[in-house]
Amino acid sequence: MQNPLRRPHGHIAPQRRQPAFDPNHDAERGGPRGDSAEGVMSQGVRGHFVAMTGEFVGTVMFLYFAFGATQIANNVLPPSEPSLDRLLFIALAFGFSLATTAWVFYRVSGGLFNPAVTLGLVLAGGLPWVRGLLLFVPQMLGGMVAAALVSCMFPGPATFQTKLTGGTSIAQGLFIEMFLTAELVLTVLFLAAEKSKATFVAPVGIGLALFVAELTGISEIPYISALEG
Hints:
The protein is mostly helical. Helix content is about 60%, strand content about 0%. Helix 1 packs antiparallel against helix 2 and helix 3 runs antiparallel to helix 4. The radius of gyration is 21 Å and the shape is globular.
């Protein structure tokens, strides 16, 4: 009886299609690859520049919509009045904003938008350390620009600051953030960094992970978790 799991003689395994852009490599885009050291270096610099630009734009878009939704939610209901509806609204805003922007920029820069996620990928070997260091800068700048835009465009004082409330101590806040950030980083590692047939829907799972984390990280008095960077 023939083993159904055994490949017949002469069978050639199908070649795995390579993505048009891999954020873990340096010479992703551009013209024909040159053989000289200068050509390879120029391709590497171009790859870093594309990734940094994508991270900056993506971080601004992600946090702009998330912060804007938070600002609206806190202006509709006074911050002094606890509301589960507001908690759900803000958590959904962060989760959907991350899922959308990560899906858009995944093939450009990886769609990380978070120094903690970037560090986790570097430590796990999924991202070169040079690329990881270069992505920290646009991610931090992107968060600052997004906060400034929301503060300028939306009325009232900014209501999306990070703070401990409800009697939460510094030690408690540290461990809460540790577990919430670990969930997000592990989701990125298992769904996006580890390639599989379901990798193309990884942004959905990453957005859901942030949504669940926000449900835990947002207290009754508006508190936005530091997960966003």
